[in-house]
Amino acid sequence: MKDDFYTQLQDTLGTIPGRDLVILAGDFNAHVGTDRAGWEGTLGRFGVGTNNDNGLRLLSFAAFNNLIIRNSHFQHPRKHQLTWRHPSGKDTAVLDYFLISSRFRSSLKDVRAMRGPDCGSDHYLVHAKLQLRLQRAKRKAPPPAKPNWMRLMDPATKREFQIALSNKFAALAQSDDLDDEEQQISQAILESAAPLCPPNRRRTQPWISDECLNLVDKRKQAKHVDLEQYRHLNREVRQMMKTEREAYWNNVAADLEEAASRHEYRTLYQTLKRLSGKTKSTNDNVKKADGTFVRSASERLQRWKEFFQELYNHDPPQGPPAEPPLIDPPANPFLDDEPTVDEVKTGVRSLKNGKAPGVDQVTAEAIKAGGDVLLHRLHALLSLIWNSERIPSAWKKAMIVPILKKGDNRE
């Protein structure tokens, strides 16, 4: 039974990441004694009594897992060290211990028995004082601002964007290198759209418009300059916020009613979840194949690599090959010729808005708004890909976003 207990305890402790603070506290029914020979890193100078079989098991377990028995590191009167007293009052011992990771040994400031509280047990309450010294979290760099590509829906803005693209392409000669040509096109799109599609401003509420934020900036500038102007702008800001808030919630209510009437429960529940503000915390702990946790970012990437290798690489099927089903030839067979401008135009028109861009940060809205100016340059790039039978390296890169459907997200 003792072996089974320590085996289960070891298995449980092995599943905890090494960077976590580990504290083992409780009645181990062990006498560790005062002899520190061979246990200098585990046992302190203020032990009590002599050790026994259970004490040796506890010392061995603590030494193997880099744990320290902190009861023995604080000098107290003997009555404040003893944690157990026989009901007859003839025998006393230390049976309850606090073990902590050696990395966090300075966090445990004191351990002592509390003899005053009457808890209806032959054990005394054991009190430990813990003080954590947390490292200040490093500020992450803010994510790059995303351009407001929806501005390209405006016809006037779209014309300005096409003119800027035309000027960019006129100064950039077509390259025979795939990667250079792809990079030139993506940079020309981003540079042309930068002044026309400013990034969305951060706001505390989704219903605050850019016009209201601009009015807030004007109010801030007038605060210490013109008090009368400040009061006038303050009234305008409050009235505009009130109007925009009411309009926003009216639109939300109308969308909910429309989704419910159309039985679009997915849209309905997503809207309700967004309004509730409840988010599910994510956990990046990943288990290895042997059940232990990864310790670093490189190990996490290696585990994902192993996962995809197991997922997509299979042994060839055994037995005779299956007979392929009879498939009628398509009415419009695929052409083997180089893609035409009309085919590229059809492909661009079929792109869906609102999709995440690739590593080049070029969205479908930008490609559609480019018009014939961008279309002919894309056709030249696709023709170069067709003839060289190669793909730009940027198009081979992707970001994998794991989405948990069921089970344990650590597996």
Concise description?
The chain is mostly helical. It has twelve helices and seven strands. The strands form three sheets. A three-stranded antiparallel β-sheet has the order 1-5-2, covered by helices on one side. A two-stranded antiparallel ribbon has the order 3-4. The protein has a two-stranded antiparallel ribbon with strand order 6-7.
Please describe the structure with a list of short key phrases separated by commas or semicolons.
411 residues, mainly alpha, Deoxyribonuclease I, Chain A, 3-stranded antiparallel sheet, two-stranded antiparallel sheet, 7 strands, extended
Would you give an account of this structure?
This protein is mainly alpha-helical and 411 residues long. Among the domains are: 2-130, Endonuclease/exonuclease/phosphatase (Deoxyribonuclease I, Chain A), CATH 3.60.10.10; 149-276, no CATH class. The protein has twelve helices and seven strands. It has helices at residues 2-14, 53-64, 78-81, 155-171, 178-193, 210-221, 227-261, 265-276, 297-312, 341-349, 364-369, 371-388; strands at residues 23-27, 67-69, 84-85, 92-93, 96-101, 108-114, 125-130. Helix 4 (155-171) packs antiparallel against helix 5 (178-193), helix 6 (210-221) runs antiparallel to helix 7 (227-261) and helix 7 runs antiparallel to helix 8. The chain is extended.
